[in-house]
Amino acid sequence: MSEENITRVTLDEILARRARGEKSKTDWARVDALTDEDIERAMRDDPDWQDLMDIDWSKAEIVIPQKKKAISIRLDEDIVNFFQASGKGYQTRINAVLRHFITEQKRSKG
Predict the structure, then answer these.
(1) pLDDT tens-place string over residues 17-52
(2) CB of 51 within 8 A of CB of 62?
(3) CA-CA distance, 21 to 7, in Å (whole number)?
(4) Burial 17-41 (b: 16+ CB within 10 A, else e)
(5) pLDDT digits (tens, 9 = 90+) for 52-104
(6) Long-range contacts for 60-64 (Cβ within 8 Å, ≥24 apart)?
(7) Can you give the pTM of this predicted structure?
(8) Helix H or strand E segment including 100
C-alpha cells in the first residue's frame, strides 16, 4: 500500500474538525450505494487483500490481548525464520499459533 495517500489523525483532531464545522471528505452516498459484489470485486483487485480473500472467517473469534510475560525460549531456526519471513509481529503470530493449539487441546479433551 502506498503511504502517500494515508492520512493519520487523532480522535482529538477529528473532534476539533467537527467542532469547526468541517465535513468528512468521504462520499458516503457512493459508499452506501456499493453492493456486496462491488465491495468483493474491489477487494479482489486490492493486493493488500490477496492472502485474505478466501479465508473462512465464520469461526473467527475476538481475542482480547492478555498481559504478556517475557521469557527466553529456544526454537528451531527454521521455525523462527518462517515466522520472521512474514514480517513485523512474528512473535504475536507465534503466540496465536500456540493459543490455537491450547484451544484445540482443551476442546478435544472437554
Answers:
(1) 999 999 888 899 999 999 999 998 999 899 998 888
(2) no
(3) 19
(4) eeeeeeeeeeeeeeeeeeeeeeeee
(5) 888 888 888 888 888 899 999 999 999 999 999 999 999 999 999 999 999 99
(6) 63/96, 63/99
(7) 0.44
(8) helix 90-109
